[in-house]
Design brief:
By secondary structure, the chain is an alpha+beta fold. The protein has eight helices and nine strands. Strand 6 and strand 7 form a beta hairpin. The two termini are about 25 Å apart.
């Protein structure tokens, strides 16, 4: 692994338990260092495998469900992992068939047998069985990505890169000198803003992104998330909306009447390296 980043630290980052200062440093390296990004993907796959296998602790399982699954790409990978595990566990083991008895008629497969039955019949030919298993897995991948209704390819293309998470507190401005800085992400990398707020009196929230006085877009039907004794409203900003400069997010609560009540303003600055 790239120097100064160990596997446990990357795991803590993915589960949302890494200290904020180390998280910021690691996110910058993920954006700038291809090797660190590759390690991120490897650790994502390991966590998904462990979750599907049920080998995560109860605490890690909760962190996986509440923090790790924040992107559509990871949710898609989890669905595929479950699909593959379901197939592999349902297929009969091959390679432990007893030798045929001389003079005994070999039993034919019933007409309505499923494909795994025929895969098991290759037990006397391990190489052939392995090739068949590989073809089955490739077929599943092809179906999932190409033929399945609502193909996930477009989602994967949008979310292939990781989401950069930035925590914002209200009231920071350019004049105060405490404005949050966000390194301009690479192409395809979105920015997830965690807007910290103590106002939990609303069922739904609304955000609006501004650059100077120009509105760049609104997000409706947002929900609050809790982590320990802190509360956040997550807002994901597509990378294509961002360029170096100063931005402001207005967070509002949605009243039962449908009207919006302003809660607070959050500022951040996008910078290049």
């Amino acid at each position: 692994m790239t120097s100064n980043i160990d596997k446990q630290e990357m795991r803590s980052y993915l589960l949302g338990t890494l200290a904020s200062d180390r998280r910021t440093e690691l996110e910058e390296r993920i954006l700038c260092d291809p090797e660190v990004y590759e390690e991120l993907l490897v650790n994502e796959e390991d966590l998904i495998d462990q979750y599907v296998a049920g080998s995560l602790s109860s605490l890690e399982k909760n962190q996986f469900e509440t923090h790790f699954l924040i992107t559509a790409e990871r949710q898609k990978n989890l669905r595929f992992g479950r699909l593959l595990k379901k197939y592999l566990t349902s297929a009969p083991a091959s390679g432990h068939h007893s030798a045929p008895v001389i003079g005994q008629t070999r039993q034919k497969a019933p007409a309505n047998s499923s494909f795994p039955f025929y895969l098991g019949s290759f037990g006397r030919f391990p190489a052939l069985a392995l090739s068949a298993a590989v073809l089955v897995c490739l077929g599943l991948v092809f179906w999932y990505w190409i033929l399945a209704p609502g193909s996930a390819r477009s989602t994967a293309e949008r979310d292939r890169a990781p989401v950069v998470v930035v925590t914002l507190v209200p009231g920071t401005t350019r004049s105060s000198g405490a404005i949050n800085r966000v390194t301009m992400p690479t192409k395809g990398v979105d920015v997830k803003l965690e807007l910290e707020t103590a106002n939990n009196s609303f069922q739904k929230y609304r955000s609006e992104l501004f650059r100077e006085s120009r509105s760049l877009g609104k997000q409706e039907e947002l929900s609050m998330e809790a982590r320990g004794d802190r509360q956040f409203v997550p807002v994901t900003i597509p990378r294509d909306l961002l360029s170096p400069g100063d931005y402001q997010v207005k967070l509002s609560g949605v009243l039962d009447s449908g009207h919006n009540e302003l809660i607070d303003n959050y500022s951040f600055r996008v910078v290049t390296e």
